[in-house]
From TrEMBL:
EC number, UniProt record: 3.1.2.2
MF annotations from Gene Ontology: hydrolase activity
Membrane topology listed for this record: Peripheral membrane protein
Taxonomic lineage: Bacteria, Bacillati, Actinomycetota, Actinomycetes, Kitasatosporales
InterPro entries in the cross-refs: HotDog_dom_sf, THEM4/THEM5_acyl-CoA_thioest, Thioestr_dom
CDD domains on file: PaaI_thioesterase
Name of the protein: Acyl-coenzyme A thioesterase THEM4
Location in the cell: Cell projection, Ruffle membrane; Cytoplasm; Membrane
């Protein structure tokens, strides 16, 4: 086992994830956590506009259509864009735990090329929780939710307080977000989680 893989393996004392009682219901569209997010926001013209839905337990599904702006090689999705789609899907799991968390590590495997125009079907699940650490994995398939795997990832997310963003974000964007009642409501819902 490599050092990278070891850091994505939950410790022996990790616990099974528990869906928060106020988490969105299975099948519910999760929406964007921030309108200008490159992964899920609709305020980014070349963003992924990823649409994630709550699944059963602590799982989500999502879809993302590869557009011309997402190319790396001619006619094919850029690997970094595919990694972003996986990261965004994995991050959506935090809606089900009702925690604010950021990516600590993301290990991605690319199994096959993804052509422009393809709908990537993503599935993600939390596998374990250990203190502030959230362990998860995801797959991206082409041709449908049961199609061949094109990309897969394992990730470690770290729970943070909303101050992480306030202290480190650009002041203009922080102020705009804090002036948006919907954004404030989302942040408070997560911040008051015991």
């Amino acid at each position: 086992m490599t050092a990278t893989s070891a850091s994505l393996t939950p410790p022996a004392d990790a616990i099974a994830p528990v869906r928060h009682p106020e988490a969105p219901a299975p099948g519910e569209l999760l929406g964007a956590h921030y309108g200008h997010c490159f992964g899920c926001g609709d305020g980014q013209p070349h963003g992924l506009h990823l649409a994630a839905r709550a699944g059963e337990g602590v799982t989500v599904t999502a879809e993302f259509t590869v557009r011309e702006a997402h190319q790396g090689a001619p006619g094919l999705a850029h690997g970094g864009v595919l990694a972003t789609a996986l990261d965004e899907t994995l991050g959506s799991l935090n809606w089900l735990l009702r925690v604010i968390a950021v990516t600590g590590r993301l290990e991605t495997d690319f199994a096959r090329p993804v052509p422009v125009g393809t709908v990537l079907h993503l599935q993600a699940e939390v596998t374990a929780v250990a203190g502030r650490k959230i362990y998860s994995r995801a797959t991206g398939r082409i041709g449908g939710p049961e199609g061949p795997v094109a990309v897969r990832a394992k990730a470690l997310f770290i729970e943070v307080k909303v101050d992480h963003f306030i202290d480190n974000g650009r002041p203009a964007e922080i102020q705009a977000a804090m002036s948006d009642p919907d954004q404030v409501r989302r942040a408070r819902a997560f911040e008051v989680n015991p």
